[in-house]
Amino acid sequence: xxxxxxxxxxxxxxxxxxxxxxxxxxxxxxxxxxxxxxxxxxxxxxxxxxxxxxxxxxxxxxxxxxxxxxxxxxxxxxxxxxxxxxxxxxxxxxxxxxxxxxxxxxxxxxxxxxxxxxxxxxxxxxxxxxxxxxxxxxxxxxxxxxxxxxxxxxxxxxxxxxxxxxxxxxxxxxxxxxxxxxxxxxxxxxxxxxxxxxxxxxxxxxxxxxxxxxxxxxxxxxxxxxxxxxxxxxxxxxxxxxxxxxxxxxxxxxxxxxxxxxxxxxxxxxxxxxxxxxxxxxxxxxxxxxxxxxxxxxxx
Length: 300
Fold this sequence. Notes:
- Its EC number is 1.1.1.31.
- It comes from Janthinobacterium lividum.
- InterPro entries: 3-OH-isobutyrate_DH-rel_CS (IPR002204), 6-PGluconate_DH-like_C_sf (IPR008927), 6PGD_dom2 (IPR013328), 6PGDH_NADP-bd (IPR006115), HIBADH (IPR011548), HIBADH-like_NADP-bd (IPR029154), HIBADH-related (IPR015815), NAD(P)-bd_dom_sf (IPR036291).
- The protein has a 6-stranded parallel beta sheet, sandwiched between helices.
- The protein starts with a strand and ends in a 20-residue tail after the last helix.
- It contains 13 helices and 9 strands.
- The protein has helices at residues 13-22, 34-43, 51-55, 68-76, 81-84, 99-111, 124-130, 141-154, 166-194, 199-207, 214-217, 241-258, 263-280; strands at residues 3-7, 26-30, 46-47, 60-63, 90-93, 115-118, 121-122, 133-138, 155-162.
- It folds into 2 domains: 1-162, Rossmann fold (3-Layer(aba) Sandwich); 167-290, Orthogonal Bundle (N-(1-d-carboxylethyl)-l-norvaline Dehydrogenase, domain 2).
- α1 (13-22) runs parallel beside α2 (34-43) and α12 runs antiparallel to α13 (263-280).
């Protein structure tokens, strides 16, 4: 595969597409934001006038979109990418959406003779930029092997969770836990600071103790503790609170459908909903610490 179409150039999609360009692929890009397209063109990609135009001669199509409705519209609407792609094209959807929607789209692709995988990612914007993402894949083994050379240019870990939709189930389990960990980490740090502890020292202590977790070590929510994180740039440029809230909602929908109790997942969803409604929907999800200390939005 040499020609790749990449649709959706947000905080995650743009660096992923950039890594494919750097790897030598011919990448056609489309996004509703002209500035996002222009940035990729500067990196060596080719701009497409529409999503349908982007996929017409592509060997593989990668999509990274915000929510169910965007994926359904792109794939299932008349004149969408399934109607426009050339025979034999491979579809890779990296969006985080409901498993049922992933299965619906995969079935539509299969009926038209296309192979497709759902491949949501973990690793954040830093992982997307560094090419170290984790891909959580649902779909056939054959489709995964076809996609692997592309995924390896954007990520470091590739897991096959099962058939179509399984990648989405695994991803929402992961993101539910991430939301819980972030809220708990913010509370612990705030408690320590309230007693006069240095947040960096406390973070180092917990990172080497039984409270160790990814948010402490990679994505610390306290400003000034860790360079390069959204917390140290006014909670911008990361994984938005609105997106975390969406994923927590997907987790609750999935829990209800399977009759699987998720009391902490339900609670953290309420916390993020309150946070979003308070005006922080576009800030990084680590800004949940601002519920505990409003105004904590600048490096110390």
